[in-house]
Amino acid sequence: MGKNLGPDTGKKARAEDAINARFVPLFTAHSRRIHGFISMLLPSGADVDDVFQETGRVLWEKFDQFEEGTNFFAWASSIARFQTLAFLQRNRRSRIKFSTEFIQTVSEQVLEDADVLEEKHRALAECVEKLKPRDHELIQLRYSPNATTKSVAKQVGRPVGGLYKALNRIENVLLDCVRLTLRRE
């Protein structure tokens, strides 16, 4: 006889699907940064990959503890730091040893830098939205995957030199806007 899969099984599957729908995009968006963070703490690429895999598993298991709307990278990095420390404890035979204090200092600096980068990224996104429609389109075209200034110039029917000047002007406008936005905050 088959097992009786009661109503709780369906609820559990739906709850897991809901978590998956929130977790996967966040983890995907930040996975390269998390991997990079771990690689700053460990000397060996194979060790970095092992700790990254373990960190991903722990992030998934503890995702119900993540507060929606907070900084996912900061949360994930703190878990990655603990996973790195645990890895180093388990593998004390390694020739290269970093102290707990070193890892703590490096990880705090990375997180501090990440917060600053996050603020700059947000300010840049706001400033790009304020661009004139034509300037916005040029920036999107130029920074789309595999685009070159030459290919965009051909696409929009402008000389390459003129497009360089236009992009330089737009980038200066964006830089001034980002600086002003960050100063106001």
SSE blueprint:
Elements: H1 7-41, H2 45-61, H3 72-90, H4 100-130, H5 133-142, H6 149-156, H7 160-184
Helix pairs in contact: 1-2, 1-3, 2-3, 3-4, 4-7, 6-7
Report what the structure shows.
The protein is mainly alpha-helical. It has seven helices and no strands. It folds into two domains: 1-108, Orthogonal Bundle (Rna Polymerase Sigma Factor, Chain: A); 131-185, Arc Repressor Mutant, subunit A (Orthogonal Bundle), CATH 1.10.10. The N and C termini lie far apart (66 Å).
List segments where confidence is low: pLDDT < 50 over at least 5 consecutive residues. Answer: none
CATH A-level architecture of the largest domain: Orthogonal Bundle
Taken as a percent bin, the fraction of beta residues is under 5%
Number of strands: 0
Globular, elongated, flat, extended or rod-shaped: what is the shape? extended
Number of helices: 7
Q: What is the name of the CATH class of the largest domain?
A: Mainly Alpha
**What value does the Rg take, in angstroms?**
23 Å
What is the helical fraction, as a range of percent?
over 70%
Q: Specify the structural class.
A: mainly alpha
Order of helices and strands: HHHHHHH
Stated plainly, the CATH topology of the largest domain is called: Rna Polymerase Sigma Factor, Chain: A
Overall pLDDT level: 84
**The number of domains:** 2
- The CATH homologous superfamily of the largest domain is called RNA polymerase sigma factor, region 2, helix turn helix motif
Largest sheet: none
What's the end-to-end separation, in Å? 66 Å
